[in-house]
Amino acid sequence: MTEPVEGETRSFERTFTVDDVRQFGAVSGDDQARHTEPNEDGEVMVQGLLTATLPTKLGSEDEVLASSMDIDFHRPVYTGDPITCRSTYETVVERDDRYEFTSDVVCENGDGDVVLTAAVEGMIWTDR
What's the pTM value of the predicted model, to 2 decimals? Predict the structure, then answer.
């Protein structure tokens, strides 16, 4: 666990594959045609909640226990398009045994278009 610092930004990039989308569809039950049948470019639309796993990945690096995630989906994500997710600690309050925080998340596609934003609240246990 790394101590969270107000204003610090962490980032992660991932490009979803057709296999990722199919596996998520099998687990979630969200296997609509838009997620299984490729368009004319051979892409399928990534499920919104699969895209929302990007902030979860960033949180796992700090052992975050999220208490709320307010997510807005701005545009579709397609397989083959790199998505960069950035999470910035907006507030960090140190308690005896934990850090309580809020963070803002922005995910953008390869063209720089915002595909997802989120406001996250949670905590991180200290090593004490």
Answer: 0.90
Q: Is the dihedral of CA 104, 56, 85, 73 positive or negative?
A: negative
Ordered by start, the domain boundaries in the chain are 8-16+47-125
Tokens of 53: 């796993």
For 69, the 3-state DSSP assignment is strand
CATH superfamily of 8-16+47-125: Hotdog Thioesterase (3.10.129.10)
**How do residues 98-121 score in pLDDT, each as one tens digit?**
999 999 999 999 999 999 999 999
Mean pLDDT of 34-57: 92
Which residue in the block uniquely carries the two structure tokens 């701005």? 74
**H runs (alpha helix) in 2-124:** 18-28, 48-51, 53-61
